[in-house]
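Notes to self after the Tuesday call (sharing in case useful).
The group wants a holo model before anyone commits to mutagenesis around the pocket. I volunteered. Ligand is phosphoenolpyruvate. Logging inputs and output together so the record is complete.
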Amino acid sequence: MRDPMVIANWKMYKTLSEAVEFFTHFPAEVGKVSDVETVICPPFISLADLSRLVKNTSLILGAQNMHWEKEGAYTGEISPLMLQELGVKYVIIGHSERRNFFGESDRVVRKKVDAAFKSGLFPILCIGENWDQFNNGETKKILQEQLSLALEQLSPNNKLVVAYEPVWAIGTGTPATGEVASGVAGYIRGLLRDLWGEVAENVRILYGGSVNPDNILEFTGKPDIDGALIGGSSLKEKFLAQMVRAVSK
Ligand code: PEP
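Result:
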């Protein structure tokens, strides 16, 4: 049984006061929805305040990244321990913006997934091909490489969430079609089955890339897609609430 999820990735948007303002109305807007895990991933500096505001709501906090060590001389980094103390449950790992702008390799992604499991956090592992790879028919090859390197020698763990995020669809207003996303999600589940056996049935697989209130059901209505990872459209309370309600049965 896989509970559906909606994940809001706020990227580098919203100051602390804007994040707090969002929380003055949003919990009430989605208050009656109990069958969709709704995860808000704000910038790090808002996590402490929001950890107080999510108490007594159905909302869950996630982080957009983390380091793999518990502590150390790593200027500018945030550790799993620091996230745990704030009640953060999920952590996005290997987002294409981290891979492309900050040089995060598959090796680093693997260390972070491992660290998330070891500290009891749920990693949201992002994988996806770029436009040229998509056009050259290399999607499956790229996803197979990214997934197998990220999970190399890790024990099966149903805390894993995988987000299929075609790089060409992120922030472009041009999503994949439901058919393509669903085919890819099925392919990813097959890869997970080969790696992890039955545990694959419990791993949630999400689609991300230009999801909005008008198209979300094109993706989340498909058998192997268990929810959506949403950037731009998650910044507006009204849109995010509409999407959470749409995914709710
Ligand atoms: C993302 O940030 O992972 C994302 C999918 O962004 P957007 O919804 O804006 O395409």
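Two things stood out.
The two ends are 14 Å apart (CA to CA).
The pocket of phosphoenolpyruvate is lined by residues 9, 11, 165, 170-171, 208-211, 229-233 (CB under 6 Å).
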